[in-house]
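## tool: complex_structure
## caller: assistant
## args:
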Amino acid sequence: MSKRNNISEQIRKYLNGELDAYAMHQLEKEAQNDPFLMEALEGYEKTGTGQQNNIEDIHTRLKSRVNKKEARVIPWRIISIAASIFIALTIGGLWLKYRQPAPESKIVAKMVLPPAKKVPADTAHLKQTLVATLRPKERPKTIVPRGAGKPRAKAENLTNTYTNAEINTSAPVGNADTKVAEYTPASSLKKDSTSLASRDVAANTYKSLMGKAAGVAILPQAAFGIKRKAITGIVKDNTAPLPGVSVKIKGTNIAAVTDANGKFTLPSVPDKAVLDLAFVGYEKKEINANNRDSLVIAMQPNNNSLNEVVIVGYGTRKEQEYQPAQPAAGWDGYKKYLKDNAISPDGKTGTVKLSFMVNTDNSLSGFKIINSISAKTDSAAINLVTNGPDWQKSNTGKPEKVKLRIKFTAKQ
Amino acid sequence: MNFFNRTIKPDEADDEALLNSYRQSGELAVLGRLYEKYVSLIYGVCLKYLKDDEHAKDAVMGIFEELITKARQHDIKQFRAWIYVLARNYCLMQLRSGKKMMVVDYDDIVENDLILHHDNKYSEEYLKIMERCMEKLPAKQKESVNLFYLQEKCYKEIADATGYTLNDVKSYIQNGKRNLKICIEKHSE
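## result:
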């Protein structure tokens, strides 16, 4: 330990000029061999003297740091507290979430009205019965919904009219005019759905849906006095079913989309409605829905659309790859040809280097000797090329210069 | 002329004892004692890189924090050299947020064990080679090395005598040493 303090002392003195020349030298020499000391000295020299206070400060800090207990101990306490709070919040949150009565908006806004889902009645039956034919403001022989029966404030204006209307169904069940059983408030729908006559449920949900479910369009005007029915259909492309076709009731936002088999269902289509069918690549089609509940529709392809989409994958790139001019039968054969035939006519051996153009009609021209061996050998080289295997032009569409080396050997 | 020899400090054994003691006991006080020995040097180095008193002080403490974890993880052979590297890297990392700086590798700076091929360093042949190499040095380097090592002058004296600046003197000495080393190694093969 003393040596360390000595060093600090020495450094201090050195910096303060308290050392004699030789002592300074000693320290400097030591620094030469010791990068640590060297850099420390540099640091001090650059920032001036008076560092003693700072060093003392550091020592103090170090002492207090060392004496701190449980410095690195993981704060179990804190973690456990945090964890309990977190769990409590989670439980509270979940509890709140599941406690609320399911709001009406839970009734899914689908094209097909939910009663099909909620009521375990026969779906097919429902489709037909769903449409409660509502007569506008007739004198009631009917039941007024009991007090709490009003579903929601929003639909109030509508329910008023409804209450006065006779809920009539086209159900096979007779007694269309008979009093319908007790209305139940929409909110109790969920609980008592099984006990209700399907009609009621349907009617009520339909009612309560009015003004509530987003996807269901309210047709206040059009609703009255117009027969509505569900329409199913299949859309084809002359032969094959077309999925994904949009089928819309003209003048409204009610639409359906054909499924994988090309089939669609529109739940509540007013009589005399017109259906718009649209699909990319096909001519738009309009169909009268009169008195029909099942349709087969054919759509004609649209000539304006892209009939052919060419997908260029990387695989096709090859054709565009640059291909230089080369022997038509390939280099291997050509090289062999040269090797077999490059016999020097005048005994002078060596490599003749020449260049020539391969034109767009695959002909050769413009022979130039770059590296000559002898006149005879040179012309022999040119002849070899001219009379040799055919060349193929490059695929750039322009004449290309080719350089060739032909090694001539002496006659065997 | 112990250019290339590192003086072995008796404290090394002490360092190792303290380090082992810490490793076994986990007592911060022990580590603190070890660290204290080098605080001045570490602080100096931090000053060099960070240039600011307060930052340097914080850095010294920060390095200590790192030491606390690393002392147990790493197998430290020579504490002094190791803490030097740690300090330097820490400072460089601090600077990194401002500028881009390379982190120094441990191996780069362990110049201490310079290898000399000769076992008997001071044989006549060696001295001859040394002399010849000295002659080959550029004038200023030769002069500075001579004054520093052979005549044992301090930088200030050399600067006064030659008229070179302090920094230049240091620079000549460094480069002279390096050239000598290269030259000697070349001739020693």
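## assistant note: Confidence is low (pLDDT under 50) at residues 112-118 of chain B. The radius of gyration of chain B is 20 Å. Handing back to user.
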